Every structure is written in structure tokens, then in C-alpha cells.
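Now for one protein, fold included:
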Amino acid sequence: MSQASAANPVAIDHGNHPLPSYLDASNLGPWGNYLQQVDRVIPHLGSLARWAETLKRPKRVLIVDVPIHMDDGTVAHFEGYRVQHNVSRGPGKGGVRFHQDVTLSEVMALSAWMSVKNAAVNVPYGGAKGGIRVDPKKLSRGELERMTRRYTSEIGIIIGPNKDIPAPDVNTNEQIMAWMMDTYSMNTGSTATGVVTGKPVDLGGSLGRREATGRGVYTVGCEAAAHIGLQIKGARIAVQGFGNVGGVAGKLFAEGGARIVAVQDHSGTIYQEAGLDVPALLQHVAEQGGVGGFSKAETMATDSFWDVDCDILIPAALEQQITAAKASRIKARMVIEGANGPTTPAADDILQSRNILVLPDVIANAGGVTVSYFEWVQDFSSFFWDEEEINARLVKIMKHAFAAVWDVSKDQKVSLRTATFIVACKRILHTRELRGLYP
């Protein structure tokens, strides 16, 4: 196990981005995209710009070895990460993903976007993220549990209800969170329901949490549509990813009268001009694990998804899906980022030049962490709200956050992404300035 802290890293010269020594300067990956986004907001920070380097360096990076006994008697080793980007405004908060392509750069970027996201909706959290480089589909349930518990024990030195609170992300779910909570609780000697969010309701989870991210996507999408004169009823929508985010958002938009005309995930790409039968598709996904093979739709070539004529495009899968080449092909009035970091900076510029409104991830998919905050609060008080109250509180916060970002966008004549960064980074850096440096 090794731990590298970015509080006092050995830096190398990389233009405007002095880098921590554990990064590959020639291939920054998602972290490089995040740094470009920060650079765009610095001119708008006023006197707080003196603290901007804070945003470019994670507070803490933990890299752990995760050895487990496999079912065949062998011992396998997996690499795990937990990154705390910034904790000036409160405990670190962010998900844990299990994926074969997880990298340190990716987890760093995701932790930083969590800092921005939490500040944008003004919940009292900093940003964190975690992951293990593994294909969980190749593990048995027993192997998955042993890996989760070992990983939790390894990162246990930096997580806790008042330190850093993990949550579900790609390929993790309520069961993973239950194992993490139990492992942490056993190691500390008392039940600590608040150490993770996204848990089963019977273990202190919150009603409405599973649907929260998709509901947030729908809420800000409707708010933005009203501002640009786009009617949701009859709108044509294409969705990439049809799980807890894309599936829930698609369901809500369909219930609002929109037509979900195309859906893509790891299993295939489907199309139906008249609008897909969303309830039937969700049932198919639950049974088959993906949209591929859905009988009530046509099959499309994977790359053709980006040529679908639609009003709203919702990328809700993985990061860096909308590249510059794809941005030139997109036929939509609005892009709502359900996934984290799905649009590269170059693609962002192209979409803006084409007058395609982009609702950035750091505001559009903040519904999940907002209800995670509700769950955390409920765990501390041991008093739980009903789903109607949770949804009402979520919608209120998302609408208020969007309104603030929209006003900054118009006042400063910047994109919604830059506007969100302005709002969030000012909150983060103002807190940093108030707290000062210790010692």
C-alpha cells in the first residue's frame, strides 16, 4: 500500500499546470480536461484567483493493493484508489466505481468534479472519489464481496461519517454499500450507517436515492427547456446509458410527453421513430442487462447514434464520449450530461459554436449527491423522511442551483459549464480563504 499526498508534491513544469509527480505529463487523461475547465474560470474569480492552485491539486491521493482469495484457491491483486480533492467545505463525498479501465487520472478528475458539483448545489461537502481497476462481471458474488471488504479496510484510514463518505457509482450498488458499511463498522467497533450513502433502506438508506440522479437530470432539463422555448411534450430524446441515470431520466421525460427515440448502452443501440416503449424497455434491461435485443425497436450501428435527429441528447454512460468529431455531428438543441465528464473541452467549444446548449454534469447530475446528503442527515438524526418530501426537497434545490447558474451565464456571457464553475469555485475558494492555512 502506498499513499501520496498532493499537499506538498514534487512538481514538474507543464505550462500553466505544475503537476504532482505521480502523474504522467504526456497523458493527463480526464484530469487534463478538468484542468482546462479550471483555467477557463480563473479570470472570473476576482481576488479569489490567488487560491486557484488549490483547485489543481488533490488534497490526498491513496493508492491501495487489494489482494483477495479467489474461488479457485489462487490469490489475485487489484489496484484501488481513493482521492480526496478538496474538503474545505465539509467531508469528502463521492462514489466508488468498479471498472476494468479505472485510472488514477480518472478518479482524480471525478473527485474534482465532485468538489464543483457539491459546491454548485451548496451542500456542505468536499469532493472525493474512489475506484478499483477490475471487471466485476468476471467475479463471483463471493469474490466481489471479499474485494469490496478488503478495499474498504484499506481505505478505512481516510473515510468516515465526518471525513469522507463513499457512495455507489459505475458497477456498484446498494449491496456494495452495505458491505462497505458493515466492514467499516466492524473495524471501528460500532454501527456507522453514515459512512456511506446509497445503502439499502433497511440499513439507513434514503427513499428516492436510487432515482435521484435521473430525477435531477429531468428537473434541470425541464428548467433549461423552458428558458430556450423547447416544449418537453413531443420532444425527441436520445439517451446513452439506460441504468439508474439514463433509465430514470428517460422514464420521467417520457411521462412528461417526450419521445425517447434512441437508446445506446454497452449491449447495443436501438431506435424507434415513434418513441420507445420505455416501461417495456426498462423491464427488458432489468432482465437482460442491456437494451440489446429489445424486440420493439430497430437496431442501429453503434456510431450512428451520434447522427440521430433529436431535440435533447442525454449522455449518461461514461466520460469522454462526446469528442470533437462527434460534436460536429450531433443534431440536438440541448445536451444534458447525466454522466460525469462525457464531453471533452474541444467538443464543448464546438457545441457552443453551434448554439447547442450544454447542461454540464456538475449541475445536471447533482441530484444523486443531493439526496445522498439527505440520507447522511437522516442517518445522523435517525429520523427519516417520506419519498414525497425527499423529492420535493430535491426539486427545490436543483431549481435554485440551476437558476443561480443561469443568471451567472447570462451576466458573464459564458457557457453554463463555466458559469457553474464560477459559482462553485468561488464558494470553495472563499471557504479556503476564510479558513486560512494551518499551520
